[in-house]
Amino acid sequence: MVELMAVKDYAQQIAEAIATVVKIDVEVADHNLMRIAGTGRYHKGVGLSMDRQGYVYQEVLRTGHQFVIETPGNHPLCSPCKARGNCSEKYEVVSPINVDDKSVGVIGLICFTEAQAKLIEENQQSYLIFLTKMAETIALKMKEQEFLAGLVSANHYLNSIIDCLDEGLITVDLDGNVLHYNQAAKRLFSTNLLTPRSHLKSLFSAQIVSDILGVGNNADQVIEREVHVETKKNRVQMILRALPIDGEKGVKSIGVTLRPLDEIGRIVHRLSLQDAGYTIDDILGVSESIAQVRERAQAVAESKSTVLIRGESGTGKEMLARSIHNLSSRQQGMFMAINCTAIPEALLESELFGYEEGAFTGARKGGKIGKIELANKGTLFLDEIGDMPLFLQAKILRVLQERQVERIGGIAPIPVDVRVIAATHRNLEQMMAKGEFRQDLYYRINVIPMDIKPLRDRKEDLQILCEHFIKGFNQQLDKTIQLMSEGFRKHLYEYSWPGNVRELQNVIEYAMNLAVGTTLSEEHLSPRLKNIEIRDDLDKFNLEKVERETILSCYRTFGAGVQGKERAAKALGIGIATLYRKLARYNIE
Ligand SMILES: Nc1ncnc2c1ncn2[C@@H]1O[C@H](COP(=O)(O)OP(=O)(O)OP(=O)(O)O)[C@@H](O)[C@H]1O
């Protein structure tokens, strides 16, 4: 609650007004017996303490009732006073100043002459009522002050909240004059562009200003636009929202919020990708090839250079790409995965590059941001890049070379800072030879090649992967599987795993759904695995079979092209002619 001191000027005015009319001095004191206002001989004592003399005031403050003292100096209340018996006051009427049933001060009429005392004594009742009214007026002023102080503090609090927002917020009147803005908005614009006297015209294009002001005509309308803003550092793309602010009689002003686009991307990323948290430790496997993949991922994570991950479907290419992203300082940015096969060719371009409003028939109002832009400061994962149409390969090449993206129908290229990780299961060298894949793009993306071997060529990884999936499905399916029977295990080891780790995951899930108890056995296998021929243990030592499998695995690793065969022959330690002979002999295509 405010103190009486806060309305001291007002109290002085009241005291002087009373004194002028009734020709009797007036004194106002607060609950600490500090003189707040005074007229005549008490005027110079304003601001001084009265605790050595205000014994009558103390009584009024204590009881909260009016008090009339006809014999100042001789009244029992005056006994502690040093002016006792020698008081210059002749008569005194005191009223409490009550606020919310609490006495916060007093107001007194003090007579110094017999004539004044007589006047009051004869009209005591009227003077008491008058003094009560004056005390109420002061109390009312205090309440008003309190209300105003509350408003100021609420306003201050509201401003602090608005300033806490990361989003820029500007309010304007219906003509576009800036009324208010928060600190985030102030930070966004270049110096002196946004001031309390600015107009929207100095911040946005005429079209955007007109769109914003249009919101003022409709209390339900909210618009969203993408805008370019000249910030202190550079030109930044933002999402602008304008919404009407209702007053008592319809829309009175308009709120405009601004948020940088890449920030939105980061939020979407954080909220939408539940498996984005893959780390390098999630890539399981004890094989040398997987150990190398993990090592290389760590080594190249911080680099901006493009990575090309090769491997059959289900070998964990996307998982590896996500791990690289999460290992790098780009992990705060978005991991934007685009599957070039999953999106129809006609849509792929607009998905990747976005478009401006009116770029083509059916283009959305306000345009659309492309995935490459969304991946700004993050990683763009181009899955199945081998399936990307040639005209888009050229556009992607330009993004990689110039680090800029041009929207369909756009005029100015937009700078982007993305790290590209591409993946494919296809033989890009062969595609290149046939003219299906651009050579320049191939060299541009193949800066850091990483191969993930098919599961059939690293069966030593089966055990750890199975344990991992069993553990996961035990939780998911509420099972208690502990073991795999020998027969079950043999089938897994004999199978060729065309679907790789993904297929293994499905096989374990299938088996665990059927299994009761703690062991997975042959009967829980899907028919495809159950029916494979299990070789005799001795069979695995058969020299021809071992040779055939080694050549096959080498052939798969290095590819079927001429170069691949040369590398395979070198790895096998045989001449190229011998390799051709063995390929023919073992009927390897
Ligand atoms: N080494 C591994 N350790 C643990 N899980 C793995 C491993 N490799 C793959 N997986 C799992 O296999 C599944 C398939 O992985 P992912 O989608 O990354 O493969 P991909 O090669 O990108 O497949 P596609 O080419 O079909 O898109 C995922 O569930 C992934 O978690």
From TrEMBL:
<dbReference type="InterPro" id="IPR029016">
    <property type="entry name" value="GAF-like_dom_sf"/>
</dbReference>
<dbReference type="InterPro" id="IPR025944">
    <property type="entry name" value="Sigma_54_int_dom_CS"/>
</dbReference>
<dbReference type="Pfam" id="PF00158">
    <property type="entry name" value="Sigma54_activat"/>
</dbReference>
<keyword id="KW-0067">ATP-binding</keyword>
<dbReference type="InterPro" id="IPR027417">
    <property type="entry name" value="P-loop_NTPase"/>
</dbReference>
<dbReference type="InterPro" id="IPR009057">
    <property type="entry name" value="Homeodomain-like_sf"/>
</dbReference>
<protein>
    <submittedName>
        <fullName>Transcriptional regulator containing PAS, AAA-type ATPase, and DNA-binding domains</fullName>
    </submittedName>
</protein>
<dbReference type="GO" id="GO:0003677">
    <property type="term" value="F:DNA binding"/>
</dbReference>
<dbReference type="InterPro" id="IPR003593">
    <property type="entry name" value="AAA+_ATPase"/>
</dbReference>
<keyword id="KW-0805">Transcription regulation</keyword>
<dbReference type="Pfam" id="PF25601">
    <property type="entry name" value="AAA_lid_14"/>
</dbReference>
<dbReference type="GO" id="GO:0006355">
    <property type="term" value="P:regulation of DNA-templated transcription"/>
</dbReference>
<feature type="domain" description="Sigma-54 factor interaction">
    <location>
        <begin position="283"/>
        <end position="513"/>
    </location>
</feature>
<dbReference type="InterPro" id="IPR025943">
    <property type="entry name" value="Sigma_54_int_dom_ATP-bd_2"/>
</dbReference>
<dbReference type="InterPro" id="IPR035965">
    <property type="entry name" value="PAS-like_dom_sf"/>
</dbReference>
<dbReference type="InterPro" id="IPR002078">
    <property type="entry name" value="Sigma_54_int"/>
</dbReference>
<dbReference type="GO" id="GO:0005524">
    <property type="term" value="F:ATP binding"/>
</dbReference>
<dbReference type="InterPro" id="IPR025662">
    <property type="entry name" value="Sigma_54_int_dom_ATP-bd_1"/>
</dbReference>
<keyword id="KW-0238">DNA-binding</keyword>
<keyword id="KW-0804">Transcription</keyword>
<dbReference type="InterPro" id="IPR058031">
    <property type="entry name" value="AAA_lid_NorR"/>
</dbReference>
<keyword id="KW-0547">Nucleotide-binding</keyword>
